[in-house]
Amino acid sequence: MRCTTCRSRSCATGTRSSRIRYVGVCDDDISLYKGDNRSWPLPKSIVGHEFSGEIEDLGELAYHAGFRIGDAVSGYAWNFCGACRYCKSGLEDHCRNAACISVLAEHVVLNMRQIQKLRPGVPLEHGIFTDAIGYCLYNGLKDRGIAVDAHVMIFGCNTFSLILLQLIKLFSGATVSIAEKDERKLELARTLGADHAFSSEVTTVLRNTAGITKDHGYDHIFEMSRDPKMLGLTGTIAAVRGDIRYSYLYGYTTSNDVNLMELYMKEVTLSPFFLVPYSLPRAVSVIPRLALQPLITDIYPLSEVSRAYHAQESGASIRNIIRL
Known about the structure:
This protein is α/β, with parallel strands linked by helices. The chain has 2 domains: 15-134 and 276-323, Medium-chain alcohol dehydrogenases, catalytic domain (Quinone Oxidoreductase, Chain A, domain 1), CATH 3.90.180.10; 136-272, Rossmann fold (3-Layer(aba) Sandwich). It has helices at 29-33, 60-64, 85-88, 130-141, 159-171, 183-191, 202-213, 228-237, 260-266, 280-286, 305-313; strands spanning 15-25, 50-58, 72-75, 78-79, 99-100, 107-111, 115-117, 151-155, 175-179, 196-198, 218-223, 238-246, 269-272, 296-301, 319-323. It starts with 14 loop residues before the first strand and ends with a strand. 43% of the residues are buried. The model has no long low-confidence stretch (mean pLDDT 88).
């Protein structure tokens, strides 16, 4: 990956030009960075979609909407058309004409619907988590009905799962277990509120499930490790009428060992995460209530963008950030 100079464009009436300050290196970007479309099949996708910055120019409608030059902002790099059947029914995440603009640039012009002002006092580097927070709020908590006495299992310690962990503890108070092979990441999960954090080795997961849930199983399971073996284990540890949600990208050619009979006998629901429809205001409002600094592994200058992506690909990082 190399840096080049491009000519900037002026703002139309409903758009704003933002001076990008920070860009997050999302795990979803890695396959695009490597040119592997088998793992990320969506069209019109491009590397770099988590960002924060400041407004440096704006159109008339954006001004009347309350935005001002110098405002600290974050938002979504995804732009939904607003006109197709899915957009009109509140399912923008399935928009047939969705496109993603790369924010790996010092200046970008975005539709005002893609931007939200950050709350006063929120560090700009925390603004890059807006996309991940919205994703977890919608896919993790919307219509989940996670009761205070529920048992929740999360597989994997990464940006999304550690944000989801905090949101569940914040809004439901349920008992949360998290399984991961990296002990250093498990310790971070404990500091962020996990009630139980242990190795994702199969026998360890089964033993802890029996003890923690008294053999009833987990009411809600979130597979966020990107490991098909963990997805295959979910049916075994799910409670009767439990709920399994799987996230991340497995690719078209990935197989798994999900036991459909186990799901049938327990009446377990299995459903995926996907892109999130418009939820910017709520996502931005939650930022001050989350511990986000511990999720930032390193901050790289733009000149070291390739190094940042290689570090994220290694699996040792939670979230690397590029400073522009």
